[in-house]
Specification:
By secondary structure, the chain is of the alpha/beta class. The chain has 2 domains: about 220 residues, Phosphoenolpyruvate-binding domains (TIM Barrel); about 55 residues. The chain has 12 helices and 10 strands. Strands 1-2-3-4-5-6-7-8 form an 8-stranded parallel beta barrel, surrounded by 4 helices. A two-stranded antiparallel ribbon has the order 9-10. α11 crosses α12. The longest helix has 22 residues. The radius of gyration is 20 Å and the shape is globular. It starts with 9 loop residues before the first strand and ends with a helix.
């Protein structure tokens, strides 16, 4: 499945140093996994985590789940060795934390070669440089690091994320302009399903492809929120059928449920059906 056509509804962080967590991830219904060598790994385990993760990925069993490895920053004493280790792992992409400019991606690409790069967007400088970062030829995806960003912004938590909206939208604009995958930040209160549902709905409405998660209990909510609903799939099918019928009759527009349907609506409808089909295919693997 092409990387940009596959679903990224749920993207779960898993510590690269914990064999039990790495094993459990093989059976979780997530679309993608971020195998973390950075924040989720203690200082004492930084060196051994690489071997632990490499062995788990070599063992396999992750099926169609997209495998991303988050390394430590290249400005840390572990980052370069992490990057060198990732190219020998069975990973689909490497995720660089705290990306502030395209130069950060250049430095990583010099080590990881053709391996697709994803960027953690989690600093004010990164927000201001989002368009240039997104245009980097090796970049395939962006991940919002909203916890670090909130710290840097010195913003307060609000359920509506008003202090975060400009940053989120700058990165969304940049990612969409370059055809990249972009996933929303984590929701920290992993036992608060209603709060998570609200934030997932907000992210989906804004245009994010999915949500990063910190706990398996959050998977079902994210998978539901970022998948086309039954009603959306039904509407898409009816829009396509009505437009094709109108075209056959020499008309350029159709009407469905009292609303005009033009070419652009049909394109969106086809994307909805393609996404639903991809989700079904992923579930079947």
């Amino acid at each position: 499945m092409d990387m940009r056509q596959r679903p990224y509804r749920s993207v779960l962080y898993i510590p690269g140093s914990k064999p039990r967590a790495l094993d459990k991830a093989r059976s979780l219904p997530v679309d993608a996994i971020i195998f973390d060598l950075e924040d989720a790994v203690s200082l004492e385990e930084k060196e051994t985590a690489r071997d632990t993760l490499k062995a788990a990925l070599a063992q396999g069993g992750y099926g169609a789940r997209f495998k991303i490895v988050r390394i430590n920053g290249l400005d840390t004493k572990w980052g370069v060795a992490d990057a060198q280790a990732v190219i020998k792992m069975d990973a689909d992409a490497v995720l660089l934390p705290k990306v502030a400019s395209p130069a950060d991606l250049d430095a990583l690409a010099a080590i990881t070669g053709d391996l697709p790069i994803w960027a953690m967007m989690e600093s004010p400088r990164g927000m201001l440089n989002a368009a240039d970062i997104a245009a980097h030829p090796k970049l395939a995806g962006m991940v919002m690091g909203t916890n670090d960003l909130a710290k840097e912004l010195q913003s307060r938590f609000r359920a509506d994320r008003l202090p975060m909206l400009t940053s989120l939208q700058l990165c969304l604009l940049a990612a969409k302009a370059e055809g990249l995958i972009i996933v929303d930040g984590v929701y920290n209160a992993f036992k608060d399903d209603e709060g998570l549902k609200f934030e997932c709905a907000q992210g989906r409405d804004m245009g994010f492809d999915g949500k990063t998660l910190i706990h398996p209990a959050q998977i079902e909510v994210a998978n539901t929120a970022f998948a086309p609903s039954t009603e959306e799939v039904d509407l898409a099918k009816r829009q396509i059928a009505a437009f094709e019928e109108a075209e056959a009759g020499g008309q350029g527009v159709a009407v469905v449920d009292g609303r005009i349907v033009e070419n652009l609506h049909v394109a969106t409808a086809r994307e909805t059906l393609a996404k639903a089909t991809a989700i079904d295919a992923l579930a079947a693997e």
